[in-house]
Structure formats: C-alpha cells, structure tokens
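for the recovery benchmark. tokens below, seq after
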C-alpha cells in the first residue's frame, strides 16, 4: 500500500488500539480465533498466579504410618501315615502236595483258588509285579490252577475243557463269562482298564486264568493284535520288554495262551526267548491250534516249557453253529479221553456254552478246567501238575 504526503508528515505516535485493530481490517473468523486465544492465555495466567486451586479452602494434612507386614500362618504339620499291615505269609495257600480229597472241607476246599498274588510268587518288574517261581519251588502253574475235583480224578468219563478269551476288554461280557460254570477257564487280554479287578472277580468265582499273549500274525500291521505285540524279526530285547509289560497286567494266571501269532510262532529265533522266559517263571503254555507252523509244540519242550495244544476252536456266527462245534468237541473227547476247546467271550458263544454245559453230565461227560489237560495228558513238556 502507498502513503500520502500528509501521512508521511505526521509525527510518529502510537495509535489507539481500537484504531489499530480497525486499520488491520481483520475478517470475522479471525476475530473469533483471536478471542479464543486470548481467553485461553488469560485462564493459564490465572492458574499459574494463583499457585493452588484450593487456595483459600481449609486443608488437612495427615501423616500415614507404614503398614506392618502380616506373615501368613504356617500350615499344620501332616498327620502321620497309618501303618500298613502285611498279610501273613502263606495265609491263603493250599498245600498242593496233599491228596485233594484229603484236604479239610473235601470237594469245596479242593475247588477253591488261592488269593493272588500268592506270597513269594512275584518279583518287581519294569512295569509292575511279575510272576516267578517261589524260593521253595512253588510255581504259578501249580498254585494258580484250579485244584481238581477228587471225583474227577477218579472218574473214567471223557473230559472236556474250555477256555474263553478276550476277557477284560468289555466289562459286561466279562462279567457274564464270570457267571458261567467255574470249571471254564478264562483268558484275559492285557489291555483291559479293569483287568485286575475283573480277574480277581473271576478267580473268586472259581475260574482259573490264563494270560492271552498278542503275537504278530501274517499281514501285520493290517492285522494288528494290539499295542506291544510280540514281533517276528524284532530284537529279542525289545520283545522281552513287551513281554514284561504283558506279564504285569494282572496276577493269578497259571499259564499263557497265544492270541494270533502265525508269523511270530513260526519264527523260532523270535519265539524261543519267550518260551524260555515263560518256562523260567513256572508258567504253562497252551497253543490254541490256529497256527499250523507253530514252534510251540516242538521248541517249547526243548526249552523246558510244558505245552499242550487245543483240540479246536468253537467260535461261529450263530448259536446253532457253536453248538455243532461243541458236539464235535464231545466226539474228540470220546476218542482221546480229553478235549480242549478255545473260544471268545462273545454273546453268541456264551449263549451256546451256557445251554450246552447244563446237559453235559447227563450225556456222560465231565467239564474240567484247562489245567486238567496238563494233569491227565501231559503228552508234551515237563512234569504234569501235581
């Protein structure tokens, strides 16, 4: 902007503020903005100069003492553990050197089973107690087998023995099998969650027990018996570790019966150490007869193992078909004096067995436990049951 000559000649003096502001010719928006800034500056100035927002109001100051640290109370000392009383050694044993008919109580006493595990007949294994021969020579095969009925020992009637496997895998089916005649032997698989309790219940009802040992079949692993299956071609140490695991699943079995095992039992280098271990622990072996090339009947006795082979398997799809196989078993008993049948604890099999067993004595046969096969016909192996 240009100044006139008159303005240039005026003396220099401050102009009034209002006139100065007018001279600036500010816009309305600028005026508003300037007013806001001025109010803000005035407020800040007031706070700074006043020093205390509560200036003029009564103020009370108190000194708070520090808090004491409170210690947590110590827990009361644990109560002393109750002493555990051990059962007296030998309290549940039966002297198997006596004549069964001379044992006090006669027939009922002879058919009772000792409580398992019997004193002195287990040792510590990597997964739990495992069976062994006692220091006085007692073996699981003698102690845990069902003692024979004196009348059976004296009888010349043909005898039939049955072992039903798969016990412990299904509680309901296992308990049904326990309700069958006590002469029927029950073979427990090593995988049941309640195997120990069910095995004890079975023995309480007079059933002698066997351990059903899973072994490699042909077509493995498509056909898989279960965890820790004994394997053909596997290192002996690995199979022995698995065997010890199986041995520890429940107490009170007098012997072992194979579950499958066509490949394993045909391999002598694999089966031999297992046979020797079973023999060294006083157990008997039952070959279920399903493996044509099984080395059990030949190699087992060479290693000191007492072995017996089952006559036939009675499983079938229908009750009538099972009954037909049981009739065939009777024929074999007539021919050989004793026949051993194997089966599975399925409803259809147990239906037929339950009905068949009721009329067995009337047809001139004796139902005996599988251990009787080792008493009356120890054709293969070492000394028979005493």
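predicted aa per position
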């Amino acid at each position: 902007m240009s100044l006139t000559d008159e303005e240039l000649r005026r003396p220099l003096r401050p102009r009034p503020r209002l006139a100065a502001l007018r001279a600036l010719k500010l816009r309305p928006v600028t005026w508003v903005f300037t007013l806001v800034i001025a109010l803000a500056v005035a407020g800040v100035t007031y706070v700074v100069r006043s020093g205390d927002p509560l200036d003029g109001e009564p103020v009370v100051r108190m000194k708070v003492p520090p808090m004491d640290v409170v210690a947590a109370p110590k827990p009361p000392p644990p109560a002393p553990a109750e002493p555990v009383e051990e059962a007296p050694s030998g309290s549940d044993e039966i002297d198997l050197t006596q004549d069964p008919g001379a044992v006090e109580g006669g027939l009922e006493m002879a058919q009772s089973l000792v409580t398992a595990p019997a004193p002195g007949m287990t040792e510590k294994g990597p997964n739990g107690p495992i069976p062994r021969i006692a220091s006085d020579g007692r073996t699981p095969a003698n102690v845990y087998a069902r003692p024979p009925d004196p009348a059976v020992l004296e009888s010349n009637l043909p005898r039939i023995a049955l072992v039903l496997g798969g016990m412990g895998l299904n509680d309901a089916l296992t308990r049904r099998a326990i309700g069958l005649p006590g002469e029927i032997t029950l073979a427990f698989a090593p995988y049941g969650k309640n195997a120990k309790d069910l095995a004890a219940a079975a023995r309480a009802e007079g059933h002698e027990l066997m351990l059903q040992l899973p072994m490699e079949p042909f077509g493995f692993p498509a056909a898989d018996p279960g965890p820790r299956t004994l394997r053909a071609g596997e290192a002996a140490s690995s199979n022995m570790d698995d065997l010890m695991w199986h041995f520890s699943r429940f107490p009170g079995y007098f012997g072992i019966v194979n579950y499958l095992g066509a490949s394993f039992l045909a391999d002598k280098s694999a089966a031999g150490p297992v046979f020797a271990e079973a023999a060294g622990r006083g157990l008997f072996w039952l070959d279920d007869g399903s493996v044509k090339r099984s080395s059990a009947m030949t190699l087992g006795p060479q290693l000191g193992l007492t072995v017996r082979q089952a006559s036939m398997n009675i499983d079938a799809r229908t009750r009538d078909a099972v009954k037909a196989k049981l009739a065939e078993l009777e024929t074999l008993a007539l021919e050989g004096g004793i026949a051993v049948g194997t089966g599975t604890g399925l409803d259809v099999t147990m239906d037929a067995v339950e009905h068949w067993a009721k009329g067995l004595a009337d047809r001139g046969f004796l139902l005996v436990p599988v251990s009787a096969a080792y008493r009356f016909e120890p054709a293969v192996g070492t000394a028979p049951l005493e």
